[in-house]
Amino acid sequence: MTSKKSYTKIRLFIASPGDVTPERDRLLKVVQEFNQPNGFLDEHGLTLQALDWRSHVAPLMGRPEAVVLEQLPVETWDIFIGLMWSRFGTATGALDPQTGFSFDSGTEEEFTLAYHAWQKTRRPQILFYHCVRDIPQRKLDITQYQRLKEFLKEFSPDGKHPGFVQEFETTDDFASRVRLDLERLLLKLRPVETSPSVSAVQTVAHEPARQRYLDTMIKTHQHLPVAGFETNLRIPIPLEKVYVTLKARMAELEHAREPGSRKRGSVRHKTSASSVEPLTGLAQSDQTVSVQQAVQFALQREYDGLVLLGYPGAGKTTLTKYFLLCFAGNKAEQQLGMPQPFLPILLSLRDIDPELPLTANTLASLQKYHLDLSEEFFLHYLQEGRAILLLDGLDEVPTEKKRAQVSQWIHHQAHLAFPKCPVIVTSRFSGYRGEAVLPGYYLRLEIQDYGMPEVQQFLENWLIGVETHVHEDNDYWRSQAKSRAENLFQRIEAAPALRELAVNPLMLQIIALVHRDRGTLPERRVELYKECTDVLLERWDKAKGLEVLLSASQARQLLQPIALWMHSVENRREVSKAELLEFMQPHLGRIKREVDPEELLQNWLDRSGIFKGEGDIYFFHHLSFQEYLTAEEIRNTRQADTLVKQFDQAWWREPTLLAMGLTNPPIFADFMRVLL
Questions:
Q1: 451, 227 in Cβ contact below 8 A?
Q2: Domain 204-447, what fold?
Q3: Average of per-residue pLDDT values in the chain
Q4: How far apart are CA 306 and CA 254, in angstroms?
Q5: Domain ranges of the chain
Q6: Nearest-angstrom CA–CA distance, 382 and 133
Q7: Residue 668, exposed/middle/buried by CB under 10 A (0-12, 13-18, 19+)?
Q8: pLDDT tens-digit profile of 595-625?
């Protein structure tokens, strides 16, 4: 025998003058949508009841507003929604007991009762909306409109009832906004199921699994991959020792899919100023702060999460791993100013299955570690708001359609399912547009380039990490590393072209890598990419006395046509092994030696760090190398027409710029001839 599921009823009172009837009716439809079987509310054990005087009030005798309020008393309201456009309403004949002034409309009286109740008990929660579409001249009542403006002015910080008023233009716009606001609010109003005593017992029971998980995360992510590749097998530099704080511009303090969305609520998470100075005063758009400060700012207010946007090589993935290590190593308060013992969950968004919940995707990402963890383990931390979600690489999801699906997955399976947990999402600018923009209230951060002080600090950290690993960790080698870092920094600072490259974290890592391997500093970006591919494909292994299956130049003879083939389809980042082997077959003659293609693929996976594979799927581990090798192939095969045909496409911007920088022979003249 199965027990009947219990539901909590949430009552929503609607207040408005008569000029917003279409929006009022649309709100009732939104409520009906929420109450669909197996829908959003059903999943959380909630039902939503709209208290509308047109359907819930009997036509009894007495003052009309009193009749409404006697049958729908304010004590029964869980949510109050106010709606206004051009009219304020009709006086009700009642006095405000706190001011002694008469109410000028039923909406004002209802709002005042709701606001006074909220001040005492924090119920009902109040949402207020103002339509800002143009008012037809025949409908404009100047007296009504002036009274409305006076009322709305009192929502300002120094007004009688400070708060937010959400603006909208169309009925569809209103429906979209109120649906989103209600989703967030209803999750806050749902009853708490787990008692503190049970939670404490569960925490103790989960401790061995927690430590096993954290130890594995530290072991997996503790080393800095050179240029984003798995090079920790070569020189395992501790990421925490190399990391230099990134700065970000808070481009939009209130970012959502619909323009004009506003942040909501009060302080949700405690932060600490032990090592990170918090923002003071009112933060302004376009303010540049450290990422740590921005995270504190978002957590002190009820943003749905943060979106960190950056150009290729800006350090987005490194940042998420640094956050993971801080929480996993119990250093978050010292390094980030966040004292909460969050369980860090780092997921690559390209691997997400949008059909599966967060816990299932998390377990899938950990399957190779054989940690023997269950969904219940993660649910324990997620439901209590004791996890931080680090969701990396929205731009790496291969198609726009799937990016939109993953964006919805983040909103529903991460934020709405676990609203107490902080969410940090990273993406390239190119991957965060259209339907991929997260629905909700996200603090949007644009990662900034390094300044010269950060460049200098990174070089010192990096070279100390390298030299103390290759030799010994003592004062002598630390001193040598600092001296070499200073010399390299001075050479970069003296060369404008190098300064321009070095402010990008990825390019700075390449400069440091090439400098140590070659002792020279090519000034053009394409030369740096060539140097880096030479090191990763051949020179590093040769320096260790290891056999190299193909030289760097031979490997590029195959990687270049592969890159162009993959790049010819917009947003294609990966191909199946079968497709790849079939494509490689006619190009094997380029290398003028017999080689087994499957053996070559495996060698690239094991040694190069440029081409990677996961199961049956293969891809360039960093898009920048796919773009560079595409440019090389276009130059070598004189395909300037390919660049001209794709001239206005964002997907082809980097290959075009890189191809223009290649020489011996150059392709610029061919490009201009075809273009003109």
A1: no
A2: Rossmann fold (3.40.50)
A3: 82
A4: 11
A5: 8-189, 204-447, 452-523, 552-675
A6: 41
A7: middle
A8: 888 888 877 876 666 777 777 888 886 777 8
